[in-house]
Specification:
By secondary structure, the chain is mainly beta. It has one domain. The chain is 13% helix and 43% strand. The protein contains 2 helices and 10 strands. The strands form 3 sheets. Strands 1-2-3-6-7-8 form a 6-stranded antiparallel sheet, with no helix packed on it. Strands 4-5 form a two-stranded antiparallel ribbon. The longest helix is centred in the N-terminal third of the chain and has 18 residues. It is globular.
């Protein structure tokens, strides 16, 4: 009879040791963030204060400037960029929208860009769950559209994104360092 309780005790101790050995990843230098249109959608939803339907959500990692020259050096002009750090930035539309003259179906997409000094070519690509832009496949592009770069007086240490309402929908505003672009989304 004593053998069964002793066995159970050793089994429980073994489980405790296994749990104690779990290793979690270190905190990333480029934390992941998320923005919605409408802004603060989850908070508005739980407070029953929604005035607009959910249109879009962007998930991105926020690299830091850390004293570096970003555009033209860290990010080479003319090369595809994942529009953040780590995993490529993803945008999800919860209804059909338009970007430029292209109709975009409800769903998830990867958002890339090709920065140059005065404009960025914004790219919506149908392949998702990608790390970086190393396996970027232009054949899977849904739309490409050029947006003008605006110089800012304020320097942003971390890449930032937000949606700003406009007359035809919203702009996805992307800013880092002293540069800003706006991707118009029609809905």
């Amino acid at each position: 009879m004593k053998k069964i309780p002793t066995f159970v005790l050793f089994l429980l101790m073994g489980c405790t040791v296994l749990q104690a050995q779990t290793k979690f990843p270190k905190v990333d230098k480029s934390p992941m963030d998320m923005v919605y249109y409408p802004d603060a959608y989850p908070h508005l939803k739980i407070q029953n204060k929604l005035t607009e339907p959910l249109i879009a959500r962007v998930i991105f990692s926020r690299p830091q400037k850390n004293g570096r020259t970003i555009f033209g050096e860290l990010l080479e002009y003319g090369k595809v960029w994942r529009l953040g750090a780590n995993e490529a930035t993803e945008i999800e539309f919860f209804q059909n929208v338009k970007i430029g003259n292209t109709k975009i179906k409800k769903g998830r997409y990867t958002l890339y860009c090709i920065p140059v000094q005065d404009k960025w070519t914004m790219i919506l690509n149908k392949e998702t769950d990608i790390w970086g832009a190393f396996k970027y496949d232009q054949a899977k592009d849904v739309v490409r559209i050029d947006v003008q770069v605006q110089k800012q007086t304020e320097i942003l240490e971390a890449l930032a994104m937000t949606f700003e309402k406009n007359a035809t929908g919203a702009d996805l505003v992307i800013s880092w360092d002293n540069f800003k672009v706006a991707l118009p989304i029609i809905f």
